[in-house]
Amino acid sequence: MNPKEEKVKIITEEFIENDEDAGVGRQKKTPKVARQKRKKRLPTTGPEEMVSENPHFNQQEPVQEDSDTRPLSMTSRRGPRSLPPIPSASRTGFAEFSMRERMREKLQAARSKAESTLLQEIPTPRPRRLQSPSEKELETEFGTEADEEVQRTQKEDDSQSYSRVKFCDSVRKIKPKPPVPPGFPSAEEAYNFFTFNFDPEPEESEEKPKAKNRDGTNQEEEEGEEEEPPVQEHKMDEEELLSAKDDEDFLLGLDHAAEDFVVVRPADYESVHVRLQMEKELLFVPSRLTVPTYKKLPENVQPRFLEDEGLYAGARPEVPRACQNIMENRLLTQEPGRKWFGDDGKILALPNPTKGFPSRPPVLTQEQDIKAELETLYKKAVKYVHRSQHMIGSGDPSGNFQLDIDISGLIFTHHPCFSREHVLAAKLAQLYDQHLARQQRNKAKFLTDKLQALRNAVQTELNPAKPHKSLDTTQKAINEYKSEIRQTRKLRDAEQEKDRTLLKTIIKVWKEMKSLREFQRFTNTPLKLVLRKEKVDQKTDEEAYEAEIQAEISELLEELMEEYERKMEGYRAAYQQWKAWKKAQRAKKKKKKQEHPDEEMEEPYPGEEPVKPVPPEPTDRALVEQQVRERAARSRRRPGEPTLVPELSLAGSVTPNEQCPRAEVLRREDVKRRSIYLKVIFNDKEVSRTDSRPLGADFRVHFGQIFNLQIFNWPESLMLQVYETIGHSGTTLLAEVFLPIPETTIVTGRAPIEEVEFSSNQHVTLDHEGVGSGVPFSFEADGSNQLILMTSGKVSNGVAWAIGENGIPLIPPLSQQNIGFRSALKRADAISSIGTSGLTDLKKLAKWAAESKLDPNDPNNAPLMQLISVATSGESYVPDFFRLEQLQQEFNFVSDEELNRSKRFRLLCLRSQEVPEFRNYKQIPAYDREIMEKVFQDYEKRLRDRNVIETKDHIDTHRAIVAKYLQQVRESVINRFLIAKHHFLLSDLIVEEEVPNISSEGSGILGLSLFKLAEQKRPLRPRRKGRKKVTAQNLSDGDIKVLVNIIRAYDIPVRKPTASKFQQPSRSSRTFSEKRAASPTAHSPTHSADYPLGQVLVRPFVEVSFQRTICHTTTAEGPNPSWNEELELPFRAPNGDYSTTSLQSVRDDVFINIFDEVLNDVLEDDHERGRGIHTHIERHWLGSVKIPFSTIYFQAKIDGTFKIDIPPVLLGYSKERNLMIERSFDSVRSLSEGSYITLFITIEPQLVPGESVREKFDSQEDEKLLQATEKFQTECALKFPHRQCLTTVTDISGKTVFVTRYLKPLNPPRELLDACPSSPQATAELVARYVSLIPFLPDTVSFAGICDMWSTSDQFLDLLAGDEEEHAVLLCNYFLSLGKKAWLMMGSAIPEGPTAYVLTREQSHYLIWNPCTGHFYGQFDTFCPLKSVGCLIGPDNIWFNIQRYDSPLRINFDVTKPKLWKSFFSRSLPYPGLSSVQPEELIYQRTDKAAAAELQDRIEKILKEKIMDWRPRHLTRWNRYCTSALRHFLPVLERSQGEDIEDDHRAELLKQLGDYRFSGFPLHMPYSELKPLTEAVYSTGVHNIDVPNVEFALAVYIHPYPKNVLSVWIYVASLIRNR
Amino acid sequence: MAAAGPSVFLLMVNGQVESAQFPEYDDLYCKYCFVYGQDWAPTALPLASVSRVDGGAGAEEGPWTVTRTEERRQHGDKGLEEGISQITSKSQDVRRALVWNFPIDVTFKSTNPYGWPQIVLSVYGPDVFGNDVVRGYGAVHVPFSPGRHKRTVPMFVPESTSKLQKFTSWFMGRRPEYTDPKVVAQGEGREVTRVRSQGFVTLLFNVVTKDMRKLGYDTGPPDTQGASGPSPPQGLPP
Predict the structure, then answer these.
(1) ipTM over 0.90
(2) Would you say the pTM of this structure is higher than 0.80?
(3) Does A924 contact B112 at a Cβ distance shorter than 8 Å?
(4) Which of B108, B171, B191 should be substituted to probe chain A, the one whose Cβ sees the most A Cβ atoms within 10 Å?
(5) Taking a C-beta distance cutoff of 8 angstroms, is the pair A1215, A1203 a contact?
């Protein structure tokens, strides 16, 4: 054994051990690690061995793979056994090889054993490694050996079972005899060492490793068993068994068990062919070949094509041919396969359902961040337009048309390279072609036949067999025939002559050619002319010839005779004339001679002298015959002469190059170098070109190409350019060929191939045999008879329109064509061909349809066809008018009148128009009959009344007019804002956090919110949160309640003891000076003694009425009662509309009335008194507070103490304070006169008040000023966000106006000034009273949902309605005109909320005026309703309050101090001198006193009726006496403005009505309408007294002020007679 | 009036808000309400029978029934006109569905198909900070024809107006919301908003109509609208 191998063995062994050690040591490691290590180590050994061995054990692995994780010792055992004969061979190369082989086996065995043990320990990752690709590669590398191995193993499979036994034995044998070398620690190691390394015997070397390996395995097993058994569970059951057994076997030294279970076989392999064979049996692979049609159809059935029969067949979906074939083949093999095929032998298919164009909606990309320079510019696609009229209309759906140009070939009729022979040949060919063409037409024959027929006709005409015909007609016909005959004969003769000359020329050219060929001794062209003689029967021919000549002669003679006759006629006539003339001449001459001998000269016209006519010569037959024969001989075949039929053939042979002279060879070569191509030029643009084809020797080029031109526009021109390329040099344009644009009827398939000639004017001279072009040349040797030929040729081509998929020719519509093309119309487009008007003319349309051969089965044409069929049937009536929407009639299911009559429809319409009455109409009934007529009554009435001024409701006409005007303004404004209402802002729809403000100044949202983040989500002690606001949309009746919390009242008037008939008058109100000083009034304590101690002074209770719902509190006692009760009143929105606009326009008031409950003992008999108490409850109205709902709505809550509106005269009550009782705090509380009530009012749930419309109004103000106002407002809002700052307002026409323009001194009515001229203060009060008498109407009510609107003072006075601003402006203007210093003061008050007051400056102090009530307060009056001051507005400036406090009590009104008041106009922005919007002067009309008196009576009457109405179950008696007394008293009240008269009045009344218990009061209010008056009377509850003997008194007084301002006094009283 | 034929038709809708697909969110709940036209009113189907039952029961059972009647009167016997569902978490299977199976049961009466009821859905769920934020709005008409209908409603939420607001709204957990979810059932004012798609909610409706045919409205297949006999069950619409 060679030492190298031994070495290898040792090393191998070593590393195997190593490996095992490693395996034992690191059992958790995957074998791959070990393996890699092995690989690394191997190269350190002899490289040669490495090469041979390393692959081997890789190669061996596939075998292992088969057995995977079985105990692999088996494999290793098998290896050696397979090689028994090999070791016995000599040590040749082969032996060495086999030796090596064995070594490898051994190695393999050892390794696999090691691996198997490893695998048993760590089995799972094993397979993965085995399949690593590198190994596979190696496997294939050594493919041959692998095969060998496979075969070997196959062989051994059979013998395995018994060989195993053998092997076991051998193992046993080996085991007992290990030599034990001394000095080695382990016997086993030593054993391994020796057995492996030093055993030269191959047998042993085979066996020993096994033993060793087995031992190794044993060791490992023993170690491994302790740790690893569970891992084996992952293996297959078989393996589990095996491993269990193996363990035993190994222990026993037996190895047989493995083989029992393991069958190692080679992988099943079948050759490709076998497998294909098998697959062929199993699988059916349909053929891809086309199935012949007959297979797909039933026997003996011809395919039937529906299209050909004119039926419509839709376009089939496109399926690749191969797929279709496969499908067809498949279907045919199936049983009922034929049913899938249609009549045409194709698979049945529905028309292609796919749309031809994508219908994907355009993608809208909204990229915001695209930089400007990167932005894509949109440019509209521009089609190539040759001329504008060729543009396709945009409405045209398909712009794709197709023109098919078929260029089949090109023939040169002359080419520079033509040799002389070619020239002749071309000529000959041309002549021959001509001949053929003539032959085909055979005109001579046709004319001969015609002549024959005519002659026959003449014969029959002359035949007397037809006597019935009149002679005239016959003669005429004969004459016509004869002239016809003559013409025909002439034509025939000409034709025959031409034929004959052509034939002669052909023969001549052919002869020339023959001579040329002979001369030049070669032939260039294969042309060969053969003249075929056709024998004719000499005799018949001659006879026919003669007959023909005879007939001709006779005809000619006849003709000549006729002519002779005619000439003779002419001659005779002329002769007669001449004779006459002669005679006359002679006579003349005689005469002349006799009379004027000198006048010989007189004969003026020598020409006139007629020549003596010559008589015509008679015709000579012989002469005629001679002529005829001559002509016949010239033009006709001689009789008996055979007919010559030339036949040109290409049968001749061309002389090959070798035999040609040099010049000719050159020419031929030159021809070969040339090639031709054509360019297709469409509308002056090259669209395609043909291939370049070499020029043939016969000067023909075949192209055979078809170009499909997809065109958009109507073809303007179509041209072919012929280019010639010579060799590799450049191309030359030979010629341009213009092709005609085909007619629209010419479609592909029907187009004939036409030849278009072309010629070129180029001059070419060639140095060879070619004749050149444009150069003279001659056939003659002497150069005479020169010819100049230009290059020319013919292009055979076909141009046609393509046919689209659906059979429609792809022709552009006619509209693109010039008008000149009109004739060529037969268009697919009806409109373009017959014009738009044609569409309405059905007959034209039908005609067009018939002409254009529309496919009637094409669904595209279906509607048209139907229309046409209707039209042509003649049944339909074609209207002679044009209608835009023809189908409208179809939708009119009822007539318009009927539709308008439908109440339901009307209701729906009105509702959708948001007409106020119907805006919220719910559940419109389904049927007309369920809609009550009265639904519309209100609406109709309103419409009717729009222009009619109705005076019934508005007793006084002026007010009616004003009301109407107001109504109209309101409507127009509301309409404007209804539109604006539908414009939404983001904030209307989406609740979003505002942009956070990092600066902690202001709200500092971010900081606050950050703080909030740390907050608990659901704190245990939640903080009070604001009430949830409810949007008004989803509310319904009953959801909203008005909560009124009545807390307490102060200074309620107390009853007066009835006993005292007279009281000392005391002033209940203070004088001006007192008010200003706010000093306590000195009350006279006179009457305090009158009150019996302990007697109830007053038992007040509060009744709240709202929308006619009444709630009241319990009764309290005393003049300073405390109720602390909450009353809940339901709220109903008008029409059930809870929208913001609707709520804003609610005009209902909350009345808070204070009553005194009086118990009257009704028992009349004293003796009954002991048994029961019978009392009667009376309630006496003491006063009221009125709060409009709109105020509550906008303020959300009203909280405060209000002054009770107590009538100036309250009979039976006094405001006397019992000093005795109230002494202690009287000094504090009685600062102000009047009674007060503390209230808290709110709405539950809280409603979101509507915002004013934020529409920016246009303005006539200066832009700078507007900017300044904005700046000013933002600055102010930043500092004091809650203080009202007003710079601009909206005027009545909706324009923004700077507020100071409203302030201007305006004159108050003259009479007010005259009333008390001495006292300016009294005048001021009077003016304030006048202003307060103008009715109050909040803007929000009149212009719902609209921001504040300011009307100018004259508008205000005309309208007689306005809110605080208007009142304040007017009052301020009056004060200004009175010379006071006055400002408009914007602030908030109770209960109005944001409002406008007037501030005036008296000498040393300021006064605050409430313009709506006319009251005024001192600056330090605590009961002043104005609670905060935002800004002051003067006629020329605005001052914003920047003081710390805003309560009027605590602020300084000195506007000159810039630290306290921020002024709008300052040094930086001086006052520009704005003109006022107010009029120059107010003009006051005196109110008609009579009208006022009349109104007064009417109001009184109406109120009386009302009171009676309110008492339906009781009798209402009117005490006239009292009424007249009251009426008398009211003007006094007016004069004194309700002050200072109570006691006088009382005294007077008592005087008059001594025996009545009297309870009553005067009500005072400005007059606007009747309704507030009745409401006010109603709210007092006077009518509620149901004592049987009650009497009433009612008096009305109207005091007219200028400008129709009316002050209304109503005195209501109830009287009960005392008994 | 009985002889004259019906003056209203009835539309009874029941079914459920079945499930939702919100790929990014979990633990959602949903609210629904109906938006309908002016001619529509939610109603209890047999008005007479309801009052009779209440009356009878009230006499028997005393205060409890009284309060219940009271309550019913307050709610107007409107059925489940609006509702708020439980919070549901995503299923663990591959569908990742959020199942509510939240019942819908409402009956409308109407005189006019105009303003046909729409169901408005709004889905809420916690964001990363645990704030309840809106995850989707959607609306769909109640199906017109009687039978069983399945509807999948795509949901969307309004977008913040700026990036900064987007961030702060995310941070604060106060995403932009509609002032009123019913906005999504209307067309007006939508042009000022920008929205983002979020997910889908699947609804199941069983629709029964009464007297529609008599009032001249033909909504269903002819055989199911017949006056006599119950309509055969329809398959699920595709």
Answers:
(1) no
(2) no
(3) yes
(4) B171
(5) no
